[in-house]
Amino acid sequence: MKVTILSENSLLILFEQDINPSVFNQVCQCVELVKAKLSVYIIDMVPSYTSIHIVFNLFKISGDELAKKLNNLADQLNNAEQTKLQTKIIEIPVYYGEEVGLDCALLAEFAETSVDGVIEMHSSKLYDVYAIGFAPGFAYLGSVDERIAMARKETPRKKVAKGSVGIADAQTAVYPADSPGGWQIIGCTPLKLIDYEDEALTIFKVGDKVKFVPITKASYLEMGGELAVGGQY
Amino acid sequence: MALEVISASFLALVQDFGRYGLQSHGITHGGPMDEHAYLWANRLLQNHYNDAQIEISLGAFSVRFTEESMISVCGADLSITLNDKPLALWRSHFVRPGDVLKFVSPKSGLRSYLAIKGGFNIGSQLKSCATVMREGLGGLSQDGQKLQTGDVLDYKKYQEELPRLTPQKFIPEYKTKLALRFIVNESENACGPKSVEQFVSQIFIISQHIDRMGYKLSGKAISTSSSGIISQGISLGAIQLPKDGQPIVLMRDRQTMGGYRQLGCVAYKDIALLAQAMPGTEVKFEPVLRQALEAELVTYKRFFNLTF
After folding, report:
1. Chain A: residue nearest B294 by CA?
2. Nearest Cα to B54, choosing from B98, B14, B104?
3. B203-207 contacts: CB < 8 A, separation 24 or more?
4. Which residues in chain B are closer than 8 Å to A44, comparing Cβ atoms?
5. Are B5 and B150 in contact (CB under 8 A)?
6. Suppose B59 and one of A156, B78, B94, B163 were both cysteines; which one would form an S-S bond, judging by CB atoms 3.0 to 4.6 Å apart?
């Protein structure tokens, strides 16, 4: 890992710039170490696939001093390389029906399979939460079966409905709120992904694992899911 | 005891110091675009630095006071009047019931800050009332909305006090030619020295594409070594270089992550100057040493009694 100070009160830790479980495991371990040993200096910490961005309290520490402390942690990180972190598995119920899975048929064509085949490929994998960003509670999950790793739409939709589950290349994600977006939409979850009134705020955190569980239209509706949510161009 | 919004047709937002500690949930900092003017407005009233104010962009905003109190207005000169008489900026004033304060149109700068003694009494959301429209967070009704005609903001009654003035040396001049200091990004994911050379050797124009998320500049396109990077967290003031070679400086409501290479980061205190710049303003960037800026920022934070 390499620490670069970016501004008066922020710095960036870069790991090997390759998206893979081993690099990501290092990122997650480093996050835990920083939380355990240096949290007094930290205002905000954003981990992502291969990096950690930190905003620190300039009253308590300078960038140079914090960089030194982080580099010392790096030694512990290398020693701890084999340790597996305890991870939480979060199950997300998804209705993949055509009313909400707007691009399921398109994806089936892309993957040269049936819609059921797409559902099977998407819901059989366990995904890592690699990063949270773009919008509150928006989690970047990876990696999808390469057969359904379809690129984003050339023209993004003006509105993608809250709860929509999408695919963009090797990534999959759930839209926590209505927003514009170019991901290929294959289903919708009735779960609320972000709740400003709830202390936990979001259901994901970086390092968690996610499993999508197909549900029927009946249970989707029962759980509060909506059908008249179709995307708009 | 309240402030009535008589007319709000462009952009007036409730802001406090911002929402910190939640970036790992994808929630941005928000807060005042011109932190210097915002902090002075609170300081002139001996408020806490986090007390809620109104950030008025461009003008077209007027309010009526229903109770007496002390107010201050700092930042842009938006042709501001109190009961149709010009109001002096960067100082406190006494207001009486029925007084009407108007922000008309920009003469110099872009955003004014209206503070009231004790701060506006506004419910917070995730420990802040800073309005972030994109996230639906903060504001008068905790839904991320800008202020509307007919809105009513609660405040406490205060008696008349001697006015306080901002010393001249702290009052910035909003020029049409800006020089901004920046720290060069030296990480592996940065644009690299060749791009930085092209960046510092020209004058940019601030484009029409400016908002609370970012300021897009326009100039001779800067070339950069290779394509995108793996998305990473981004700092306030980060200068991103998208594929078109035209830099974007990221401001208060920026997304928490981005996948563009960066040239560097604008000095914290200089972000306030950029926040006041109109489209068409000329901007030049000067690389400086980080250590000097660090000392400057610590002094600034102490001066305003900030806690971090």
Report:
1. A8
2. B14
3. B203/B282, B203/B283, B203/B284, B204/B247, B204/B282, B204/B283, B204/B284, B204/B285, B205/B279, B205/B280, B205/B281, B205/B282, B205/B283, B206/B277, B206/B278, B206/B279, B206/B280, B206/B281, B206/B283, B207/B246, B207/B279
4. 20-24, 29
5. yes
6. B78
DSSP SS3 for B223? coil
Whose CA is closest to B55, among B84, B28, B76? B76
- The whole-angstrom separation of Cα B1 and Cα B69 is 9
Q: HSE of B93 in the Cβ direction (CA atoms, 13 Å)?
A: 21
**Residue appearing with tokens 């773009």:** A134
Do the Cβ atoms of A161 and A100 come closer than 8 Å? yes
Single-letter amino acid code for the residue at B258:
G
Quick check: B24 and A47 CB within 8 A?
yes
Q: Give A-chain residues touching B20 at CB under 8 angstroms.
A: 43-44, 55
Tokens at residue B184, please?
Answer: 């060069």
Q: Which helix (H) or strand (E) holds B296?
A: helix B290-303
Amino acid sitting at position B110: L
Tokens of B150: 């007919």
* pLDDT tens digits along B286-295: 999 999 999 9
Do the beta carbons of residue A13 and residue A34 sit within 8 Å? no
Q: Pick A57's closest partner by Cβ from B232, B265, B308.
A: B308
Nearest CA in chain A to B305: A59
Residues 53-92 (B) with a CB less than 8 A from some CB of A? none
Place of tokens 């462009």: B10
Pairing of strands B248-250, B282-287: unpaired
Interface membership of B202 toward A (CB under 8 Å): no
pLDDT digits (tens, 9 = 90+) for B9-25: 999 999 999 999 999 99
Q: Any CB–CB contact under 8 A between B230 and chain A?
A: yes
Instruction: Give chain A's count of helices (H) and strands (E).
Output: 5, 13
Question: Rounded to 5 degrees, what angle do the CA atoms A14, B291, A43 make?
Answer: 55
Per-residue pLDDT tens over the stretch B231-287: 999 999 999 999 899 999 999 999 999 889 999 999 999 999 999 999 999 999 999
- In whole angstroms, what is the distance from residue B114 CA to residue A74 CA? 47
pTM over 0.90: yes
* Residue in chain A lying closest to B265 (CA): A7
Quote ipTM for the complex.
0.96
